[in-house]
Amino acid sequence: MTNIAIVDYGMGNLRSVSKALEHVAPTATIVVTSDPSVVKEAERVVVPGQGAMPNCIHELEIRGLRGAVQEAATNKPFLGICIGLQMLFEESEEGNIKGLGILPGRVLHFPSSAMTTPDGQKLKVPHMGWNQVHQTIDHPLWHGIANDARFYFVHSYYVETTESQPVAARSDYPFPFTCAVAKDNIFAVQFHPEKSHVAGLMLLSNFANWTPHFADEAS
Amino acid sequence: MGLAKRIIPCLDVTNGRVVKGINFIELRDAGDPVEISRRYDEQGADELTFLDITASSDNRDLILHIIEEVAAQVFIPLTVGGGVRQVDDVRRLLNAGADKVSINTAAVQNPQLVADAAGHYGAQCIVVAIDAKQVNKTDNMPRWEVFTHGGRKATGIDAVEWAKKMQSLGAGEILLTSMDKDGTRNGFDLALTRAVSDAIDIPIIASGGVGNLDHLVDGILKGHADAVLAASIFHYGEYTVHQAKKYMAEHGIEVRL
């Protein structure tokens, strides 16, 4: 039985994600797959993503993975990374495309008019490098990770949530933006835990051991 | 507090070994790439860059194995460049575990390659490497030209204009090497670095000439670089990456410590 399925929809470097998971969960069966039935049967699902969101959604659809990903987002530990976070939302400015609509909000480009520091220095886009992650909630995936620890980011679009409820962390570039969300069995991050050294490996280890509480199980 | 400036050790790889040259020639062995990568990772390197300087294609696949091995042990971003000529080269490097691929000569020969690679894999993984050399001697109006083929061939292209063009085609980052400074240990070409950085909106990595820690500080503060790349000061154990970061922090630069 597959413990962790990494959803492969043909976009970029999935090897990093699988290597990092193998490193933190050496006894787990981890597969990189584009087979919807493997995703459906897996205990846990990771949806990574790089590149342009319209291509990602398109590739997900032509491989018949959209349904399996949507289902996984409702019923098992689900980790979205980068575009895997962005596609959970309703729509994106990138190609004006609809997302999966699982979480309320939209994906916006860093506005060039805002990209300066208080002392007037230009901030580059993509937002590339190690930035601090301010945790806004207590969550099992943050266990053992210092608040304001640095994670590796590389992105030009960010998520604007319409409700504060799913926000799990924010970063500043130069304004505060949502860099992690958590809802029931879903945890999704804008940064790349698989490339974020000790803090990133801790987050992946926490995910491999996470037993989420579902809202409808609450008594 | 916000985004940290990055320190990137660079590993020039040929025949499976890390080497270091002076002004692009006179190679000297610096060790095993996997071992060196692990050491820099432990020291707190923010990324690693591998440049495959193998001239013949016979040994080209060696770098794929090295990247696979490094990617299984080192969980920070890896950039790989050298000999990238087509979109399929980008795919193979990404599949081996590279996070970013650096394109140099092929971008000049076929700028559409940058657009195609960025269009398919995203701007975030396409770095355009520019080897630039000052072509006039008047320092109040300096002009730099792009060179290709490991610095052997002049192109007549203005380096600042070229960086802007690469950004417009979809490059996510510029790796800018001063050929005048590379291997000299006299510091970055700060005027070049600043001219390119101020002209573009994507991040820029300054490269070529680092001989001490003040050079790294200058690259950020005076050159306006978003990241600084160095090789020999780290390879031969003069400084650790951690020492470099502490020094930069003492000079008011935000770093990941």
Care to describe what's here?
- The complex is a heterodimer of chains A (about 220) and B (about 260).
- Chain A has about 220 residues and is an alpha/beta fold.
- Chain A has a single domain (about 5-210), classed as Rossmann fold.
- Chain A has helices at about 15-25, 35-40, 55-60, 65-75, 85, 195-210; strands at about 5, 30-35, 45, 80, 90, 95-100, 105-110, 125-130, 135, 150-155, 155-160, 165-170, 175-185, 185-190.
- An eight-stranded mixed β-sheet of chain A has the order 2-1-3-4-14-13-12-9, sandwiched between helices. A four-stranded mixed β-sheet of chain A has the order 6-5-7-11, with no helix packed on it. A two-stranded antiparallel sheet of chain A has the order 8-10.
- In chain A, strand 1 (about 5), helix 1 and strand 2 (about 30-35) form a beta-alpha-beta unit.
- The longest helix of chain A has 12 residues, at about 195-210.
- The model of chain A has no long low-confidence stretch (mean pLDDT about 95).
- With about 260 residues, chain B is α/β, with parallel strands linked by helices.
- Helix content of chain B is about 35%, strand content about 25%.
- Chain B has ten helices and twelve strands.
- In chain B, strand 11, helix 8 (about 215-220) and strand 12 (about 225-230) form a beta-alpha-beta unit.
- In chain B, helix 1 runs parallel beside helix 2.
- The longest helix of chain B has 12 residues, at about 60-70.
- The radius of gyration of chain B is 17 Å and the shape is globular.
- Read across the widest sheet of chain A, the strand sequence of neighbours is 2-1-3-4-14-13-12-9
- Gyration radius of chain A, in Å: 16 Å
Total of helices of chain A: 6
Percent range for helical residues of chain A? 10-25%
* Biggest beta sheet attributes of chain B: 8 strands, parallel, barrel
Strand order of the largest sheet of chain B: 1-4-5-6-7-10-11-12
What is the CATH domain class of chain A? Alpha Beta
* CATH homologous superfamily (4th level) name of chain A: Class I glutamine amidotransferase (GATase) domain
Average pLDDT of chain B: 92
For the sheet with most strands of chain A, the description reads: 8 strands, mixed
DSSP strand count of chain B = 12
Strand content of chain A: 25-35%
Mean pLDDT of chain A: 93
Q: What is the terminal-to-terminal distance of chain A? A: 31 Å
Q: Note poorly predicted spans of chain A.
A: none
